[in-house]
Amino acid sequence: MRVTLGDVARRAGVSLATASRALNGSDRNVGDVLAARVRASAKELGYLPYAPAQALARASTATLGVLLHDVADPYFGVITRGASEAAAEAGLLTMVVSTFADPDLELRNIRMLHAQRARAIVLAASGYVDEEATRRLDEALGAYRAEGGRVVALTDHGPSYDSVRPANRRGAADLTRALLGLGHRRFAVVPGPERLRVSLDRLLGVREALDEAGVALGPEAVEFAEFSHEGGRAATARLLERSRPTALIALSDVGAVGALAELRGRGLDVPGDISVVGFDDIPCAAQLAPALTTVRVPLERMGAEAVRLALEPRPRTAPGGIEDATDGLSAGPDTRSPRVVDLPTETVLRASTAPPPGAF
Amino acid sequence: MRVTLGDVARRAGVSLATASRALNGSDRNVGDVLAARVRASAKELGYLPYAPAQALARASTATLGVLLHDVADPYFGVITRGASEAAAEAGLLTMVVSTFADPDLELRNIRMLHAQRARAIVLAASGYVDEEATRRLDEALGAYRAEGGRVVALTDHGPSYDSVRPANRRGAADLTRALLGLGHRRFAVVPGPERLRVSLDRLLGVREALDEAGVALGPEAVEFAEFSHEGGRAATARLLERSRPTALIALSDVGAVGALAELRGRGLDVPGDISVVGFDDIPCAAQLAPALTTVRVPLERMGAEAVRLALEPRPRTAPGGIEDATDGLSAGPDTRSPRVVDLPTETVLRASTAPPPGAF
DNA sequence: CTGAAAGCGCTAACAT
DNA sequence: ATGTTAGCGCTTTCAG
């Protein structure tokens, strides 16, 4: 019932080794006639290599893992497309796992990916503020790397990881400056969840630009929220209870969409009464009512670059220096310096922003 | 360097078999003390099972494959979330592969998933009109199933597959009837790509409702297009060159978004000058300008049901029993009658539709 | 260039 | 209840 390499070999009248070499061997050392015969009988038999067996024998799989919050979120959807296309080009299959921003789930999923011996793991989400959670994740990732697994982070994961970094802080600062340039002085901000580094990073950018301009941003003007429609909506509602901003900065597009919905529900005109901006430039941002001013993050490219980085040959280097995750101090146990790819972002002005009401 | 089960067994002072049973065995036949000892040393050593070896020994993997056009398309994103959550609950990892609606790529990917010995394959996309392509896909899927792989289709894939079917035809008919009810008589339709069955299915529903009402739909009023923003936009542009519909039916939301963009670019008001409807009810449909009237397809549920179906134990040879969609013809080679789950859709009226201009 | 044979890490009979 | 021992299908030394 199951066609094995042995069947192919027998039918071609060659040994197992020859069949293996002819079909999947990297070497070119099989005679043309035999090779052709092997390929022919493989086709006739409908032979398909048994990946788990190959993995066991080769001590290496043909799979890539992508860890994200939610596949259905367009932010991650686009990243995943970039990553899985790059992976496909390298002959790898992509395993996508959602963590819903839960460090425990993330830890479990890292272990699963490790158990599968995925060639590499792309951390598209992650980057928690919680030190204990981070420590546990680092430990799991360390074990994975100790066995040869490659890890690339798309978020701030500490200096020991290869990473692809969009200019979160800088992008948020530029975005804020654009708003300041329009004349806004009263701001409200809806970052992502407080437990994620990326939220704080982007918020930092906003603060930076505001400080520059001497504009204050009190705690009453900041309302953390999940990266979701409902999160953005509810946070906006709470903000409006206690302040009257002329500009609302949502630090994710999905959150901005929720904010727009809340504003619309209250009969406020955007941008007439209040300007709204998002972050990420997800595909539908340009199609909203009104079209959303935002920061373009090169999502697809991030995914692709991450895979490129992950698959790039790594000098296994320094004899006598296999890592040691425990002694965080001292001479770095990892002689291989992590690669970092910085990707610029770009502010995209659309219809959701205008000078504040009363400006002239 | 690599911790194996053997290491764990040795450290616990038990045999390999006992360690295996204590850690991953389904049986309960390990003494409490030993089991505890094994678990303890596994933890101390940081042991992680080696999935490829388990797969080889068990002749079964813990992975699921999802085949779709594009992960970044929200339609598939949401389906994938449903599927991968259900898979995760069953302890499976999800491999997502994009085919970009290309049958050849799809064939290759089916083979890859087969080679990986994914437990089941969910065909979220697929369903081609081309008979030759379909034959080749069926052949590959047949080989996969012959080895015990399970296949569930979310599109029309012929009667031999387990399937989860949204009411595409019916949904399109209902949607069209809603438009007729508003008074529209001049229609234009942008289905999906002509090579996909789902496009024709939905178009059929439109035709059915139109016929009922005695409204004609000439070939000049139908313009096939890829399921994409640009596809919808360009098709709309072409349609407007040769007709002046009062209602534009895009048979996908992403296409409808493109249509809205084109209309806006031409200075046409929606729904004042022309009503626009989509299909799918992707997350951002409600947030567009204007909010899109569409047909809600239970995407997440489809993904989850598909996995449920795929994982449901299958009587290997059970004669008689559940309904059989095929039995008009011969006694098929497959005695197991395919399961079919039909899922209803629902028309959602939003701001993009209104009575035609001039109606009173 | 080709073949024989030793595993890769784990599970599942089959003993005991 | 626990241990012994074959493999699972493939790659890869190592011989010839």
UniProtKB/TrEMBL annotation, chains A, B:
<dbReference type="GO" id="GO:0003700">
    <property type="term" value="F:DNA-binding transcription factor activity"/>
</dbReference>
<dbReference type="GO" id="GO:0000976">
    <property type="term" value="F:transcription cis-regulatory region binding"/>
</dbReference>
<keyword id="KW-0805">Transcription regulation</keyword>
<keyword id="KW-0804">Transcription</keyword>
<dbReference type="InterPro" id="IPR010982">
    <property type="entry name" value="Lambda_DNA-bd_dom_sf"/>
</dbReference>
<dbReference type="InterPro" id="IPR000843">
    <property type="entry name" value="HTH_LacI"/>
</dbReference>
<dbReference type="Pfam" id="PF00356">
    <property type="entry name" value="LacI"/>
</dbReference>
<keyword id="KW-0238">DNA-binding</keyword>
<dbReference type="InterPro" id="IPR046335">
    <property type="entry name" value="LacI/GalR-like_sensor"/>
</dbReference>
<dbReference type="InterPro" id="IPR028082">
    <property type="entry name" value="Peripla_BP_I"/>
</dbReference>
<feature type="region of interest" description="Disordered">
    <location>
        <begin position="311"/>
        <end position="360"/>
    </location>
</feature>
<protein>
    <submittedName>
        <fullName>LacI family transcriptional regulator</fullName>
    </submittedName>
</protein>
<dbReference type="Pfam" id="PF13377">
    <property type="entry name" value="Peripla_BP_3"/>
</dbReference>
<feature type="domain" description="HTH lacI-type">
    <location>
        <begin position="3"/>
        <end position="58"/>
    </location>
</feature>
